[in-house]
Design brief:
The protein has seven helices and twelve strands. The strands form three sheets. It has a six-stranded antiparallel β-sheet. Strands 3-4-2-5 form a four-stranded antiparallel β-sheet, sandwiched between helices. By secondary structure, it is α+β, with helices and mostly antiparallel strands.
């Protein structure tokens, strides 16, 4: 009888151990953010002065809306925000903001047709280089170049140092139909690694003290150059990644398409 009791206790102990939830540090780590295509967006404002677009973007950002501004080919500055799965959802949200007096006239920007672009290989170049209409990398580079000369601020009055550059790269990719993470560190971790010799237009280039401390990011536009937001409030400009400051801090390049 005594042995039977011990056997039962041992059996209960084994079963309970087998069904016990493992400690937090043994569980699977959360998966990193995935790169995905951007949905419908709301575009508001039509300003001849960049400071007006900056003011509207800051107003939206202070409400927790991830908005950014850019210059259209005709020279007019507009603000864009949102990532909606369907056009009706975007319209409802835009109308809500209009009724609240946050925005005035608006336009619903449709998703970019990603099917028209020829994919690039991460392992080796299998595409025709430079400025093809179906080369998404060239489109991303051209979009980045459209920002040159704009004094860029991202995050309203609450932005912290180092976020303007990643906000710029995120805005460029968003306009080209691709959602990438918000911070430079997240962007670095989300992309596919590219050897320095294989960098091409549209890749992002990262700088910092180490892979765990990324402090800057720019959009590579070919010929050893990048477009980047140097610091909060400074103009978007072009720079050579071979310049001593960047060469000494180069961490790597990443591709997202």
């Amino acid at each position: 009888m005594h042995r039977t009791g011990l056997f039962i206790i041992l059996l209960i102990f084994i079963i309970s151990c087998g069904t016990h939830t493992p400690p937090r540090h043994y569980r699977s780590a959360p998966k990193p953010k995935k790169i995905n295509t951007a949905g419908y967006a709301i575009q508001a404002g039509a300003f001849s002065q960049v400071k007006n677009a900056e003011t509207l973007a800051g107003k939206l950002q202070n409400k927790g809306i991830d908005a950014f501004y850019f210059r259209k080919p005709d020279g007019i500055f507009v603000v864009r925000f949102g990532d909606f799965s369907d056009i009706d959802q975007a319209k409802r949200y835009a109308l809500k903001l209009k009724n609240e007096g946050v925005i005035d006239a608006y336009y619903i920007a449709p998703p970019v047709d990603m099917q028209k672009y020829t994919p690039r290989s991460v392992e080796k170049k299998t595409y025709e280089p430079k400025k093809r209409d179906d080369d998404l990398g060239a489109v991303i580079a051209q979009t980045a170049e459209r920002f040159i000369g704009i004094p860029y601020k991202w995050g309203g009055n609450t932005v912290v140092d180092g976020l303007d550059c990643s906000g710029f790269s995120k805005a460029v990719y968003n306009l080209c139909g691709i959602n990438i993470p918000r911070t430079a560190h997240e962007q670095y971790n989300a992309g596919d690694g590219i050897d320095k010799a294989d960098m091409d237009e549209g890749d992002l280039v990262f700088f910092g003290e180490s892979k765990n401390r990324i402090t800057h990011v720019g959009v590579y536009v070919g010929n050893g150059k990048m477009v980047h937001a140097p610091k909060r409030g400074d103009d978007i400009k072009i720079a050579k990644i071979s310049d001593a400051y960047f060469a000494n801090r180069f961490i790597g390049a990443r591709r997202y398409f």
